[in-house]
Design a protein that fits this description.
about 325 residues; alpha/beta; Inosine-uridine Nucleoside N-ribohydrolase, Chain A; two-stranded antiparallel ribbon; 12 strands; about 15% strand; binds beta-D-ribofuranose; binds calcium ion
């Protein structure tokens, strides 16, 4: 039986790749997409999710709106660097028709809580934006933290951050929420920069999508090329773009793609290092470890999986 999955996204080029990876995976049953702010405003992200689902013929998947900003803030504005990396529309200025579908009634947080109650161990939640919706679910329903299986893209344990020497972008948007998640949740896998910056895509791969001559191939190629171009400025030493968010979905399909360190984590919420993901010294001697932090990745196998799955999906959207 396919594993049920909910994606919590701030869509974003690599979030779009993550959603595409999930739609392309027979092992997964995408039961919903919940939206968050981050790379874009909440509304823009929801619009992108609806448009991508329509492109790939999956209007059956509901899109829920989550919280528009961190609980510690009054509002949210898109950072200049996010626009530079993902484009003003979040999907690398790729043009998709205005979606006919609408955001579903009800809150993303309620949907997350109800789905965990209903599906338990048959469900995985993959969060690739700020952890604001997940922290709200934990606060609203204490059972959520005990029963949810969560994979996040966020953080950096063995390498520096990408928005500050100590902080990764998703965690930095709402460090308090990420800290609550690590302290409360019983099963969190952290796919951070330690592994995602080892998995890169180049123009060579996106050319294969463009050559298909399909709407799906064009979309993936245009959006990802924009993202690769930004990486040429922000991280020229890498030689490609980081496949952050799709790696988190790939690990939800096949955990053997990464090797993990079992550890209890926390996030610094005070002082200069606010936003740093680090081991929780207060739970160092606790034999029960609630987080798995990916520190190694089978790059070749993941890239093969990504190209095979996304190319097939792109082919199908004529
Ligand atoms: C993360 O930040 C966002 O910009 C990306 O979509 C990814 O989720 C990488 O640090
Ligand atoms: Ca993201």
């Amino acid at each position: 039986m396919a594993k049920k999955i909910i994606l919590d996204l701030d869509t974003g080029v690599d979030d779009a790749l993550a959603l595409s990876y999930a739609l392309a995976s027979e092992e997964l049953d995408v039961i919903g997409v919940t939206g968050t702010y981050g790379n874009v405003l909440l509304e823009t992200g929801a619009r992108n999710n609806l448009a991508i689902l329509e492109l790939f013929g999956r209007t059956d998947v509901p899109v829920y709106a989550g919280l528009p900003h961190a609980s510690t803030r009054d509002g949210f504005e898109v950072l200049e660097i996010s626009e530079f990396i993902h484009g003003k529309n979040g999907i690398g200025e790729a043009e998709l028709p205005e979606p006919a579908g609408e955001v579903a009634d009800g809150s993303a947080v309620d949907f997350l809580i109800d789905s965990v109650k209903q599906h338990g161990d048959d469900l995985v939640i993959v969060a690739t934006g700020p952890m604001t919706n997940l922290a709200a679910a934990i606060r609203q329903d204490p059972g959520f933290a005990d029963n949810a299986h969560i994979v996040i893209m966020g953080g950096a344990l063995t390498v520096p951050g990408n928005v500050a020497p100590w902080a990764e972008a998703n965690i930095n948007q709402d460090p308090d929420a990420a800290d609550e998640l690590f302290r409360a949740a019983r099963d969190v896998t952290m796919i951070g920069l330690d592994v995602t910056l080892q998995t890169l895509l180049t123009y060579e791969e996106t050319a294969k999508w463009r050559e298909l001559g399909t709407r799906g191939g064009d979309f993936l190629a245009v959006a990802t090329d924009y993202y690769i171009k930004a990486y040429e400025t922000t991280a020229p030493h890498l030689g490609g773009c980081g496949l952050h968010d799709p790696l988190a979905v790939a690990v939800a399909v096949d955990p053997s793609l990464v090797t993990c360190l079992d550890i209890n984590m926390k996030v610094d919420t005070e002082g200069e290092t606010r936003g740093r993901t680090i081991g929780n010294e207060e739970r160092l001697n606790d034999p029960v470890k609630t987080a798995k932090v990916a520190v190694g990745v089978d790059v070749e196998r993941f890239l093969n999986e990504l190209m095979t799955r996304l190319t097939k999906l792109a082919e199908s959207a004529k």
